[in-house]
Specification:
Order of helices and strands: EHEEH
Helix content: 25-40%
Number of helices: 2
Shape: globular
Distance between the termini: 16 Å
Strand content: 5-15%
Radius of gyration: 16 Å
Strand order of the largest sheet: 1-2-3
Number of strands: 3
């Protein structure tokens, strides 16, 4: 996959991940100006896996974030084990706040700058001849 026509430099890799921006068609919906509380990136050698599909009810304080993170933090390891995803698969977690604590073990905890740098290096390493 060529990213923004910038391989191997990939200065625009952030546009690959809709982390800090959304398409302009969503400018008045989806909390477009809100940064996410958590971003999980998994670099896999096989097909992607999906998250749970049961709705998350509001927590005691009315929010959804903490319960959603707790469910996802339990679900991803179970899913990866059941489908034989190797332990060595690379993953990164960008998270903010105590409500996202349950996601901390799903990958290396990073900042946005570290996420972009690390994913760029990992993908480039996999695209190298003989990798």
């Amino acid at each position: 996959m060529v990213l923004q026509g910038e391989y191997p430099g990939w200065a625009g890799i952030r546009q690959v991940f809709p982390i800090v921006s959304l398409p302009t068609g969503k400018i008045n919906t989806f909390g477009n100006h809100t940064l996410p509380s958590a971003v999980i990136v998994k670099l896999r050698t096989r097909r992607p896996v999906s998250a749970f599909e049961q709705p998350v009810p509001p927590g005691a304080n009315g929010g959804f974030l903490e319960e959603a993170c707790e469910r996802l933090g339990r679900y991803v390891p179970q899913l990866e084990k059941a489908f034989g995803v190797p332990d060595g698969e690379q993953g990164w977690v960008l998270r903010v706040g105590e409500e996202t604590q349950a996601l901390k073990d799903l990958g290396t905890n990073v900042t946005l700058a570290e996420l972009v740098t690390d994913v760029k290096a990992a993908v480039a390493g996999r695209l190298e001849p003989g990798a």
